[in-house]
Amino acid sequence: MAKPIAYGHLKLKPNEFYEMDLNDFEDMRTAHEQAETERRWEMAYWVCNMISPHVGKGKVSVNSLVKPFLPKKEVTRTKEECENFFEDFYKQRKEVMEDGNDSRVSG
What we know:
The protein is an all-alpha fold. The chain folds into two domains: 2-71; 75-107. It has helices spanning 2-9, 14-19, 22-55, 62-66, 79-99.
């Protein structure tokens, strides 16, 4: 799922994509989404100003024009939750590397 975003929307080259770490890629993706959202709000503002005189005052709003393009609300993780997840992940990884095996995995 990351490659279509990287090569399409972000216009990265394969070597640029593979040199990035996950956090850099996520930051770029988030910045792209924010820029796209701002562009849509600006476009809706100008369209609203152009058509409002023709349809009557108050019948068209910027919110009503941009609403279909806004992402659906989802449960989002806070930065602190993500940091805690990675901290636990690396801690578990370090424990496994020190033990030489993972007793949690049966095999």
